[in-house]
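S1.2 Input.
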Amino acid sequence: MFFKIIISLTLLLSTSLIANSIKPTLIFYCGITMVKPIKEMAKIIEDKYNCTIKISQGGSKDLYDSLRYSKVGDLFLPGSNSYRTNNLKDGYLLEAVEIGYNKAAIFVRKDKNKENIDLEDFIKTSLSSILCNPKSGSIGRETKKIFENYKGEDFFYEAYDNSVEIGTDSRNLNRALIDKRADITINWRSTAFWQENNKYIDIIEIDEKFAKKEPLKISLLKFSQNKEIAKSFMEFAVSKEGQKIMKKYGFL
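S1.3 Output.
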């Protein structure tokens, strides 16, 4: 996945070099879960500042590895704030703004009876599960935390051993349920409200003592060539209008 992002970024940069002769071009590294509201905000900022915003989307770890490797770009929004706090030591992530929260939930195919389904079902064989790799997407890291908060490390290993498939990111998990490759998963709850998913997926909330609210923060990148516009994007995201867009896509 990392190499795919690098290839995509190379294409973005090629486009940017051409576009820069006309208007500023920003690169926004965005976790898959937040792409929809960020795209809507980007269009507003593009119109207001006569700029172009290229969105590089993917798993949070791959995105950070990509910006660290290329040292190009303007903004970074991972699906988990741990990708900010754990990487501050590198010095590439500057000031940040909190634009909302996400929370994980159990996702169930609509054609399955969701009554009485809970975390225990991830170690049973009555339902097939797909889980995200904890080393790739932010939801994988969050799933690991949830299982360990629930019953410890042994439960985490048992649940992953019991899964029929290991996914790479939130989009991959939803696709597996829609394609009926699995019955249940743990995913970021906001994605269940998306138009392409809500016809196929129901959610079951997880107790907050196991699945905590995850703050979503946009970070300004040290090597941004368009810091003023990037800061304006950050300010818009926390404004009343920006928050309305976040809520529209299911974010808390």
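S1.4 Remarks. The chain has two domains: 2-102+215-248, 104-205.
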